């Protein structure tokens, strides 16, 4: 649809005007690797507000400048209202700014960039605050070592603004697919309308834990991801060598198995799994923010954001920072 | 931002190509009014699939024609993955169609129309399936009569497609605000990251029920809604008399108190609360679908979709059907 006209060119003129990140205050150590978990009294709202505050500061803007607050998170803070309303209460009380959630689980941040850049391109908004982050620790099963030792609680935020055609920043290409053969490979079956909190018994409480079938996910990815990535690169008209930074979702240690199979050898993509583990929706923006802060991404650089999410949903986005 | 150029004209050329609706199979009677609740073995996915099937049929399209599946629902079916991935599994398994959730609680459908019409205007998608619906019955507190006797389980869906400038269909004006002074006036405090399912005890289980502070909501609405509506009409450059159909969120019996105060006397807006109660995110699209089916809305008619949602979020959208 968009591909013809967007080949190698910026299709939607937007700019990441500022980014921020925050880690939970509690620390656990698993085999020499640190994982971050919320301390008693600390909530994801604290981390989200910290990350958003830094993003606004870097953008040189205040909350009152924002046209919309978007929470791009995988899990709800409360069953009702949406997460963005609770962030609004914390950071924008008394302002009329609309608040909205956009959710594709782990890749919610990439989806939100895709969606909100269209709203900016359509003239609906000009400045948007996007926040990601999850309380992974709320549903981890200590008996499932693979996932229990993998996740951290963290948050990240960005200020996305309309850019001029001459600024060199924007989105060249975005694609998203859902392969629901994998809908139950990563899930928390309980806690929603299908199996309400009230239905929890001693017998079924495993259903309320995070459950990841690592091998099945790997198999589905091995079968479908290489073709997807080739197709995206071809449609975008971009070669791997032109990309200055590849930020994949920090899903697990399997990153070093999967990425080379997709034509990105070790060293050509950001892998912060040893440092932070998987931070669910915060993984991509957190790693992007850190890489920018380290000076490894500069204005105008071609950046690839990609990842797999529960669903199974895959995202692929090429942007000039 | 968009207002100048959009005054009284279509700003985003989209069309509701088909709509469908579905009610839960169980029936309860409260003081002569029927409420619909899921029967044993029935889930919201059944209702969503029924509504979406009808919408696709009316549009003369198949699922394979869709570019994106959007769940515009207030509550999660599971904590992970997102609702749209579960709908995808039911209706689009084996297809690559992306699946995504957009959530502003009760007005999620209006927000999703707003967002997806921008994605269509930006050339990102051309045909989108939007589904709304919630399992209100999963969290109703039998002790809180006001809400227990108000809600029904239902679903509604639409196929939103790109339209040509000559077709006369599209969105003229859309505005959304969040007034988070009311963030805790309508909520389910438990079940998410702030108060996980695992934290439920006999003492705190009220926190996992739906909790609505009707009087506080009414007060906030009385104070802020009239000005909001006036501002929207002025910005849109549209007079009330030009609007052929007003579809408000079917929040409660207070509709007949609030709407006249907003300048819409009884009889000028659709009130189906006596028939169905409040169906959360399904209320607006269900009433819209029914009104179209009754022949009260015809192609080219100016339709106002509006409502308040937990958050407190308000939406106001003018579209030509």
Notes on the structure:
The structure is a homodimer of 321-residue chains. Chain A is an alpha/beta fold. Chain A contains nine helices and 13 strands. In chain A, strand 12 and strand 13 (313-320) form a beta hairpin. The longest helix of chain A is centred in the last third of the chain and has 23 residues, at 214-236. Chain A is globular and about 60 Å long. Residues 1-6 of chain A have low confidence and may be disordered. At the A-B interface, helix 3, strand 5, helix 4, strand 8 and strand 9 of A face helix 3, strand 5, helix 4, strand 8 and strand 9 of B. Strand 5 (99-103) of chain A pairs antiparallel with strand 5 (99-103) of chain B, so a sheet runs across the interface.
Task: Give a short overview.
2 copies of one chain form a homodimer. The first copy, chain A, is of the alpha/beta class.
Strand arrangement, major sheet of chain A? 1-7-6-4-5
Number of strands of chain A: 13
Mean pLDDT, all residues of chain A: 94
What is the highest CATH level, the class of chain A?
Alpha Beta
CATH superfamily of chain A, please? Thiolase/Chalcone synthase
Q: Please identify, by name, the CATH architecture of chain A.
A: 3-Layer(aba) Sandwich
Which oligomerization state do the chains in this entry correspond to? Answer: homodimer
Q: How many DSSP helices of chain A?
A: 9
Q: What is the percentage of strand-forming residues of chain A?
A: 15-25%
Helical fraction of chain A equals 25-40%
Global Rg of chain A: 19 Å
Q: Structural class given helices, strands, pairing of chain A?
A: alpha/beta
The CATH topology label of chain A is: Peroxisomal Thiolase, Chain A, domain 1
Largest sheet of chain A: 5 strands, mixed
GO molecular function (chains A, B): 3-oxoacyl-[acyl-carrier-protein] synthase activity; beta-ketoacyl-acyl-carrier-protein synthase III activity
EC number (chains A, B): 2.3.1.180
Pfam family, one (chains A, B): ACP_syn_III
Protein name (chains A, B): 3-oxoacyl-[acyl-carrier-protein] synthase 3
